[in-house]
Amino acid sequence: MTAKHLQDTVELHNGVKMPWFGLGVFKVQEGDEVVQSVKAAIKNGYRSIDTAAVYKNEEGVGQGLRQALKETGLKREDLFITSKVWNSDQGYDSTLKAYEESLQKLGLEYLDLYLIHWPVKGKYKETWRALETLYKEGRVRAIGVSNFHVHHLKDVLEDAEIKPMVNQVEYHPRLTQTELRAFCREQGIQLEAWSPLAQGQLLNDETLKKIAAQYNKSVAQVILRWDLQNEVITIPKSINEHRIIENADIFDFELTTEDMEKISGLNEDSRVGPDPDNFDF
Question: Which PANTHER family match (predicted)?
Answer without folding.
Answer: 2,5-DIKETO-D-GLUCONIC ACID REDUCTASE (PTHR43827), NADP-DEPENDENT OXIDOREDUCTASE DOMAIN-CONTAINING PROTEIN (PTHR43827:SF3)
